[in-house]
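I am still getting used to backbone structure tokens and would like to learn alongside you. Label the sequence line and the structure token line clearly, so we can match residues to local backbone shapes. Would you write everything just below, so we can both look at the same thing?
***
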Amino acid sequence: MLIVDFETRSRCDLTKAGADKYAADTSTDILCMAAVCTETRREWEWTPEFYLEDSFIHALEKTDFVCAHNARFDQAIWEYAAVRLYDFPEVPREKWYCSAAQMRVNALPSGLDNACLALKTSNVKSARGKHLIRRLSVPDKEGQFCNDAQLMKEMYNYCLADVRATRDIVAATRRLSRVEHADWLINEWVNDNGVRIDMPLAHAAQEYANAETGEINSEMLKLTNGEITKATQRQRVAEWVGRRLSADGLKVFTKYVDEAKKFTLEKSARENFFVLADAGDIVETDEVYNVLACYDDANKSSVAKFKRMTEMSMHDGRVRGAFLYAGASTLRFTSRGLQLHNFKRDCLSVKDAEAQRTVMLAGHKIRNGSVMESLGKLLRPTIIPSNNCSFVVNDWSAIENRMLPWLAGDPEADKKLALFREIDADPDALDTYQVAAADAGVEDRQIGKVIELSLGFLGANGAFNSMARAFGIKLPEAEVSRIISSWRKKNAWAVSFGNKLEKAAVQAVLNEGLIHPAGRVSYICNDGTLTCTLPSGTVLTYPQAKFQRDDETGKKGLTALKANLTAGAGATDWPRFNLWRGLLAENATQAECATLLREALRGCYDSGIKVVIHCHDEIVAECRDSEVDWTAKSLERIMREAPLWAEGLPLKAEPTVSKRYGK
């Protein structure tokens, strides 16, 4: 493996444009490159005034992989700048390898500095780098670049230190398997395809958002008698509202961090407040309600997302690099840049989106609902296919609710799978939400939906109430407890499976080297690393697992290092989290659902289906209008045929065709 790292400079803002647009910008240039061979430990340093050493070119030809940390950036720099400007040899796409992806499949922090901290490597990423990048990689106010020789020398050393640190973390952890590397490459193929943006609509949405923000700020100024000048001033809003909230209202915005009480204006708290206030469960003055409404409107993420669309779109109107392989600890894909995984599912139909677009491009007033709410519903429809093309969209129906009982491998759980088969065969049969409601002794299908989405992973009153609020449902606490108890009695297999998972994981940690099964899942621990093996062969990793007594509670529990937590300033050890039965069930279920998605993407790649979006249980393909029928049938076949390892898992996926991205 040849590990490489580039340091660059550009008038293009990397944080706004993303790696692909940044690398393609004509002002982007290379300051230096460092490389190291993992086998020979030979190191190279290169700067633009020199030719590449023959020994480096020879190593490049012989190596199996060219590795970089967050390889999409270095690959883009290699292809757009190194090859074009400095006659670097081209590297076949299949030879690229990402060490950050290697960290993620090992459930470790993917940032190089954090990975080094978690693994306690001898070489670490220098904190000096941020200062050097500010001085050398971005232009000053006059648009000029700094060429200070001493700083440049420091930058070369910083670059070399990065490849040494990368070499250390690669050596300290399990490398990507052939299958994992192939899946990473396929995700990069999706990233290369990109998503096309309706640029006139995105620009118009920004203009409407800016105008609406101005009106919201004026309203905020009036409501607070000039105390708050902008609706996005979080601290001022928090102080103003905090002095005027009722005792019940204060409870909604209070959370506890390490047993310390903290006032918060986070989104979930605001949502809870409006649900309770609208239902009359808490009583606040109109001024408090309206100030919080202004703050909520001004902070809707849709405003920022339309701006990101225009900032990240390349010459062909496409945004690339939106998806991250194994971004979650369950190996699920996540989204970056545009954050497509977080787009509201509640969106306008194609017909309504076209009508709204016509209104906005003509400069007329948006009449249906608030401007910010309307813009949020336009996010998905702003993504469009190429001319004379369509989207074919397909997603699995209730995939997690099917996967969980299948993983349990329990005769009682099989009854739930039989229910899904009955529903799939007979559209008039009771759906799972109606059945869940009946299991809990209620008739309301919405309550059944809350049950299915909150209790499968052994959530209790808190999980139920949180999900219920999202559906505008509020029940007395005694009724919530009764519903949970009734559902668990009818679905005892779910509780039993969670208990088996926790017992197997604990026994694996206490008895290293021995396999402990639980349903279709098994655990084994070696050298402190707990691994969970799923029926597909997918492996989840829990680093530095321990079964120990909590110093504060005195209770024994299973814990492991948590990659997506953040170490505090000056910390020498990485944070940990509790591996309780509900989390283990959720991890196994989501991980195996993610495996289904990866295998379907392989099928799309092999079949020549152009995938532009994948989101949890959904695949969006783009094809010519003349190929819609073939693409829809092929995608349905790929997603409905259970893999060999998933025999007995009922799958349902029905494609739709659209001219805009929608629900």
About this structure: The chain has 25 helices and 23 strands. The mean pLDDT is 92. The longest helix spans residues 581-607. The two ends are 43 Å apart (CA to CA).
